């Protein structure tokens, strides 16, 4: 019914159920891949042990284990665990429908127009294919996390860092709207410059060859960079006119107070809400003091890190950890509550990064631990070989089997993690190649269509040009039939656009499809109004579009035959009529009835309904 | 601190300043010269001494949530009671515009709202008891109370978003009378610096009149079509208003008199003026200082009286001049208007009435003064309206 939008809630059962089913199926596939890999690996090792060359390779592998710098290990395992945690958060049932509207759009809302345009591209991709997008996010993030944790050295480990950087940038741009760095109110206290950007920095460090970790220089530069960033954030925090110096003004809460209040209002454990609310109350009363503390703390910690003096680094690190933890609990509210939290926000990653930097500075690999040149360098003879030949040689089944069998268990798990990422990404990539939204959105709004098979009731009405048109005269074509009010303010224009979208999707075969609407307003039904509606909806150029009307008696007859209710509401209400569409085959039989309440009328829902019509029409065209 | 570190700190500070600048851009909408006077709402009353009187008020809930519904009330001739007469069949969240086309006949235009981009029209021949479709008007009628006007020879005028349309078949079909850009580019429009159209009327001689806001200070934007060309007309303003922006808030013709309500200046120096055109000469009432409180409703009544609803619960009525030599008299209503007053009307006995709408109830109040007592508002009638909440959201 127009004006009675059912909408699309985050917990829509159709979407949630489809999401769970997809996760389950992909989970089963992931398990199967793991099992096959494990069996293959064990079998390969047995094959190796049987031969002298293979046994030598196994012994060589056992003796070639190289230590990993402690700072790198902290980053790799720490961020791996965080990625896994983020992936599990992506598995929340409300993600398919809620991610664009509850997470991405609000994050972008205060950013400049160009940021919103960029982010909107991602929103469209997600909202057109919500189930594939949500499952992809789960598997990609879990896969990256497992890969990071499992692969401790070599190219596999560096590749994990590279994938972490790549996916992190995608999330940072589309999910976090560039971490909000272009939005007013940017503050370190609330996670600037975006948690995932810190993941990217960590990923980039993991990508670095081990030789960079053999001297304290990497740790020193990392800590200095961190110090520079914190000093910048201190200046930004101190900048007047941004509302951080006021806990409360005469008319409204200060910037920080209102940010904290917004966190308090999200669903979370009571004790946590009371802590955050208490701190918010404190900030409201002592805004200037809290901001002064934040500015001084950030500035001093930043300056100490920037100085690079070793004797101040340890206490500085402790202060930073304490500040981050306090911020994480009292301001960021742990970050992952609120129904659709996607990560634990920026403070834990920042702590990890700082610790990693400190360990890289103070505990680099010693000369004894460092890999020898013999191990690192490739044999000169092998290097001199042509790359193509080397590749062909490496792809020989025997070499593959030996290489696989000689791999460590950690590498096998890393390979499985890479497969899990592909498992999640592939369906999303395929879905993204389709410019039309999935029908599941329409089904989530209105339920599934009903298959029918009865002769469509006949009618003869007048089209927008004043010509008489009968249903019988359309025999031989697929008829997509609906009922529209030409002066409707909400649903009918949306439905008209869905029909228009279907016509575009059908393409050249549209000559065999007639789009027919019958007036559903007993009071405004003249051809002047059907023509006005056509102009409004840019339908005048569609040769296969018919907007039919007639006398009130004729229309009532058609409404009754097709089960359409058209009720006049008093006092300025629009006509309440059924939103329904019928698909009539070339022989004049009604084959499908679609509940056609367009719901929220978003681009994705419109496209989804259009896809539903298109699929039904194409099915009939193919079977004729 | 080494030079390198100093440079780093300077760089950091510069970056932070740039970021701070990003977050503290001035809102361009609030910059520049003050905005011209805002138009009154669509709430208005169209009164008739011998025919049906009409009143438009907004009822229901939040307009932002499409829970507001504009209602049309009709008062039959000889009756003191208002009856709900909103035409059915169209959601009217965008507003209603009414024009009396005869004693018992009227034309109503629905303002576009949500996805509806044109104006459905409805006509009545029996004082609002039944309505039939006519039109439509494409593009939609403008968001001004005097956006529709009826002429003595059955002609109709409509102000739209792009100019003015005219109809000679009771609203069934419309043709463009003049586009806003064409009027602004013409000699008359250039002389005023026309920025927008705000009202339409027919003069007592049947000539189309259009009114608007002028960008050139001290200029009244009333245009008359004569011999196929548009000419500027309007009262001569006092020299003190030569530097003020002038906007026409209302323009209507009744009983052979065309009445224009003008806003002069903005902010604390804003004042209201009323001018009457009888024959070829304009009469100007004394300026009424409103100190920035521009009316939320302006109604022109028979004979040229004007009823204004001002912010802060204040109301004013201007009586037309008794003789051509006099200038009319402002009467600031001493009793505060009843809460939620949408528009003022006049009873059959000539007493001011306040039509106050609160959610689904319209209350009609009449200003009455007992001998020796201050005037006060007395409740005359309440009308409960079945607001179709949720039907447009």
Considering the chains and any ligands shown, give keywords for the structure.
heterodimer, A: 624 residues, alpha+beta, Glutaredoxin, six-stranded mixed β-sheet, two-stranded antiparallel ribbon, 24 helices, 60% helix, B: 393 residues, mainly beta, Methylamine Dehydrogenase, Chain H, five-stranded antiparallel β-sheet, four-stranded antiparallel β-sheet, 8% helix, globular
Description:
Chain A has helices spanning 13-50, 52-63, 70-89, 95-108, 113-128, 130-150, 154-175, 195-207, 217-238, 255-264, 270-285, 287-307, 310-330, 347-362, 373-376, 380-384, 387-394, 397-406, 409-432, 440-446, 491-506, 527-536, 552-561, 603-623; strands at residues 450-455, 460-462, 468-470, 478-484, 513-519, 545-548, 566-567, 576-577, 580-584, 589-595. Chain A is α+β, with helices and mostly antiparallel strands and 624 residues long. Chain A folds into two domains: 13-367 and 381-430, no CATH class; 440-623, Glutaredoxin (3-Layer(aba) Sandwich). In chain A, the strands form three sheets. Chain A has a six-stranded mixed beta sheet with strand order 1-10-9-4-5-6. A two-stranded antiparallel sheet of chain A has the order 2-3. Chain A is flat and about 95 Å long. The two termini of chain A are 33 Å apart. Residues 373-378 of chain A have low confidence and may be disordered. By secondary structure, chain B is mainly beta. Chain B has one domain (36-384): Methylamine Dehydrogenase, Chain H. Chain B is built from three helices and 29 strands. Chain B has helices at 3-23, 180-185, 187-192; strands at 44-46, 53-60, 68-75, 83-84, 96-100, 106-110, 119-124, 132-137, 148-150, 156-159, 163-167, 175-179, 194-202, 208-214, 221-226, 229-233, 246-254, 257-264, 271-278, 281-284, 288-289, 297-300, 306-310, 314-319, 329-332, 341-346, 352-358, 361-368, 376-384. In chain B, strands 17, 18, 19, 20 and 21 form a five-stranded antiparallel beta sheet that branches. Chain B has a four-stranded antiparallel beta sheet with strand order 1-2-3-4, with no helix packed on it. The longest helix of chain B has 21 residues, at 3-23. Chain B starts with a helix and ends in a 9-residue tail after the last strand. The model of chain B is unreliable at 16-36 (pLDDT under 50). Chains A and B meet through helix 9, helix 21 and helix 22 of A and helix 1, strand 3 and strand 8 of B.
């Amino acid at each position: 019914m127009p004006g009675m939008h059912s909408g699309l809630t985050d917990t829509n059962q159709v979407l949630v159920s489809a999401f769970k089913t997809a996760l389950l199926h992909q989970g089963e596939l992931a398990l199967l891949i793991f099992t096959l890999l494990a069996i293959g690996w064990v079998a390969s090792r047995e094959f190796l042990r049987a031969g002298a060359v293979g046994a030598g390779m196994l012994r060589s592998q056992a003796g070639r284990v190289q230590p990993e710098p402690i700072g790198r290990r902290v980053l790799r395992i720490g961020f791996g665990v965080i990625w896994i945690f983020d992936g599990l958060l992506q598995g929340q049932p409300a993600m398919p429908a809620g991610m664009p509207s509850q997470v991405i759009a609000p994050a972008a809302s205060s950013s400049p127009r160009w940021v919103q345009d960029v982010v909107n591209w991602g929103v469209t991709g997600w909202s057109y294919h919500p189930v594939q997008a949500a499952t992809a996010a789960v598997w990609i993030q879990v896969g990256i996390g497992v890969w990071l944790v499992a692969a401790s050295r070599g190219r596999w480990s560096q590749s994990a860092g590279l994938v972490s950087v790549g996916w992190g940038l995608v999330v940072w741009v589309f999910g976090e709207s560039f971490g909000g760095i272009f939005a007013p109110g940017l503050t370190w206290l609330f996670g600037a410059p975006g948690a995932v950007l810190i993941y990217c920095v960590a990923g980039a460090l993991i990508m670095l060859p081990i030789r960079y970790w053999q001297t304290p220089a990497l740790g020193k530069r990392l800590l200095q960079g961190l110090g520079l960033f914190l000093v910048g954030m201190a200046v930004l925090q101190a900048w007047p006119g941004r509302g951080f110096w006021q806990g409360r003004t005469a008319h409204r809460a200060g910037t920080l107070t209102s940010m904290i209040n917004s966190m308090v209002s999200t669903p979370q454990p009571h004790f946590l809400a009371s802590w955050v609310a208490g701190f918010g109350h404190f900030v409201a009363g002592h805004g200037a003091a809290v901001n002064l503390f934040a500015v001084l703390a950030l500035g001093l910690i930043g300056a100490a890190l920037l100085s690079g003096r070793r004797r101040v680094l340890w206490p500085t690190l402790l202060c930073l950890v304490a500040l981050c933890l306090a911020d994480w609990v009292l301001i960021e509210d742990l970050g992952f509550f609120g129904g659709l939290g996607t990560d634990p926000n920026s403070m834990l990653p920042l702590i990890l990064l700082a610790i990693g930097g400190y360990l890289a500075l103070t505990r680099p690999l010693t000369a004894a631990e460092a890999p020898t040149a013999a191990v690192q360098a490739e044999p000169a003879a092998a290097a001199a070989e042509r790359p193509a030949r080397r590749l062909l040689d490496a792809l020989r089944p025997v070499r593959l089997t030996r290489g696989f069998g000689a791999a460590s268990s950690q590498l096998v798990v890393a390979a499985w993690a890479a497969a899990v990422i592909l498992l999640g990404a592939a369906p999303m990539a395929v879905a993204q190649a389709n410019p039309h939204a999935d029908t599941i959105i329409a089904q989530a709004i209105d339920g599934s269509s009903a298959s029918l098979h009865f002769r469509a009731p006949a009618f003869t009405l007048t089209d927008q040009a004043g010509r008489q048109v009968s249903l019988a005269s359309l025999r031989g074509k697929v008829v997509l039939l609906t009922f529209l009010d030409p002066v409707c303010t909400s649903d009918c224009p949306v439905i008209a656009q869905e029909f228009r979208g279907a016509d575009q999707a059908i393409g050249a075969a549209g000559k065999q499809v007639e789009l027919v609407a019958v007036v559903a307003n007993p009071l405004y039904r003249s051809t002047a109004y059907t023509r006005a509606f056509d102009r409004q909806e840019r339908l005048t150029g569609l040769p296969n579009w018919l907007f039919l009307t007639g006398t009130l008696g004729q229309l009532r007859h058609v409404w009754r035959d097709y089960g359409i209710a058209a009720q006049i509401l008093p006092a300025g209400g629009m006509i309440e009529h059924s939103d329904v569409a019928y698909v009539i085959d070339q022989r004049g039989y009604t084959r499908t009835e679609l509940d056609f309440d367009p719901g929220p009328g978003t681009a994705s829902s419109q496209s989804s309904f259009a896809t539903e019509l298109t699929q039904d029409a194409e099915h009939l065209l193919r079977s004729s | 601190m080494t030079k390198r570190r100093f440079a780093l700190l300077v760089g950091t500070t510069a970056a932070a300043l740039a970021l701070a600048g990003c977050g503290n851009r001035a809102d361009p909408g609030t910059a520049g010269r003050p905005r011209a006077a805002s138009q009154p709402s669509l709430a208005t009353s169209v009164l008739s001494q011998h025919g049906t009187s009409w009143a438009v008020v907004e009822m229901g809930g939040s307009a932002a949530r499409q829970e507001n519904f504009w209602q049309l009330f009709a008062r039959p001739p000889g009756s003191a009671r208002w009856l709900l007469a909103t035409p059915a069949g169209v959601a009217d969240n965008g507003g209603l515009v009414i024009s009396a086309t005869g004693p018992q006949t009227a034309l109503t235009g629905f303002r576009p709202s949500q996805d509806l981009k044109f104006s459905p029209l409805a006509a009545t021949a029996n004082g609002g008891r039944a309505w039939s479709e006519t039109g439509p008007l494409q593009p939609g009628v403008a968001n001004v109370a005097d956006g529709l006007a009826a002429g003595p020879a059955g002609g109709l005028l409509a102000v739209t978003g792009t100019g003015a349309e005219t109809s000679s078949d009771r609203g069934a079909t419309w043709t463009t009378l003049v586009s806003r850009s064409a009027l602004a580019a013409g000699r008359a429009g250039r002389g005023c610096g026309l920025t927008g159209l705000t009202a339409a009327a027919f003069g007592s001689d049947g000539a189309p009149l259009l009114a608007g806001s002028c960008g050139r200070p001290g200029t009244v934007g009333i245009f008359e079509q004569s011999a196929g060309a548009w000419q500027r007309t309007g009262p001569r303003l006092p020299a003190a208003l030569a530097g003020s922006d002038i906007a026409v808030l209302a323009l209507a013709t009744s009983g052979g008199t065309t009445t224009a309500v003008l806003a002069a200046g903005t902010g604390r120096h804003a004042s209201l003026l009323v001018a009457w055109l009888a024959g070829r000469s304009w009469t100007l009432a004394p300026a009424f200082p409103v100190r920035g409180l521009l009316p939320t409703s302006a109604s022109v009544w028979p004979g040229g009286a004007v009823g204004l609803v001002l912010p802060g619960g204040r109301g004013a009525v201007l009586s037309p001049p008794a003789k051509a030599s006099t200038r009319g008299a402002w009467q600031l209503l001493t009793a505060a208007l009843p809460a939620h007053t949408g528009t003022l009307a006049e009873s059959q006995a000539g007493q001011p009435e306040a039509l106050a709408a609160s959610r689904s109830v319209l209350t009609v109040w009449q200003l009455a003064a007992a001998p020796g007592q201050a005037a006060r508002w007395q409740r005359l009638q309440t009308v409960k309206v079945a607001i179709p909440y949720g039907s447009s959201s």
